[in-house]
Amino acid sequence: MSRFLLGHAPAIRLGVFAGLLLLMAVLEARAPRRPRLLPRRARWPGNLGIVAINTAALRLLIPLGAVGLAAIGERRGWGLLNHLPLAPWLRALAAFMLLDLAIYLQHVMFHAVPALWRLHRMHHADLDFDVTTGARFHPGEILLSMGIKLGVVAALGAPAAAVLVFEVALNGTAMFNHANLRLPLGLDRALRWIVVTPDMHRVHHSVVVAETNSNFGFNLPWWDRLLGTYRAQPAAGHLGMTIGIDRFRDPGASRLDRMLLQPFAGSGQRDEGGQRDAGGQRDGGRGSVAIAQSPPPPPR
After folding, report:
1. Average confidence (pLDDT) over 239-268
2. Looking at the domain assignment, is residue 67 inside a domain?
3. How many structural domains are present in the chain?
4. For the CA atoms of 140, 230, 275, 251, what is the dihedral angle to 10 degrees?
5. Domain span at 178
6. Cα separation of 5 and 111, whole Å?
7. Entry pTM
8. Which of 34, 140, 176, 285 has the most CB atoms lying inside 10 A of its own CB?
9. Is 57 domain-assigned?
């Protein structure tokens, strides 16, 4: 099985990405959670164009990739998991869980450090929230994230097949939990115990800083619950909340050229004047993880 996965890795990646992108686009068109602020033609060329640039940058600058490094590590016995007496399935499961924790912690760091927020805020500046938002990341963030992932893979000694499964799953869940998809509330409540749902992650894309600094998980929802960054619902409800960043409200900012230049626009703070949190207090934009203390209203 591992040999098959590794031998067909490019086709698996492309097939899962294209298939889920199409599926989520169809589903969110049939059952949208929120009305669109902008038409797809104003956003999708930039959001999908950045995918092409990121793919080319990774192939050119880091051709080995995390799976390739993991395969080398397996042969040479690198990393913690290669020195523990674990069954292969348990080693793979541990690698998957620890890689997901690393992605969660990395996400928190990209919010907490102003220089990293400059890169990451392009993802948050999307004025709408749909399946393409899940692929909208600045090339600088993508390259830095891959460097971090390579270090984690080498330190863990993660099996190559487990790394491939993790990357495919992470890519797939990112498109699912960014979809503008209306799920039955009962199904959403059940699913968010095992996977990050669109309603759970949408809170993270609110202009309210206390909400932006919550629900950092992309794949598994447990880290937010365990580490105190979980927020069930936005204060204004899903229909009333505002998506994006206050200082990037110009629809023209969704053009590909302006997206690429966004890290160099202004300060590394949330916005030049700070945003207001759920209690009306001004936030200086330092990126600290702030969790609202008042109970959220019922979902809408």
Report:
1. 89
2. yes
3. 1
4. 50
5. 2-267
6. 34
7. 0.86
8. 176
9. yes
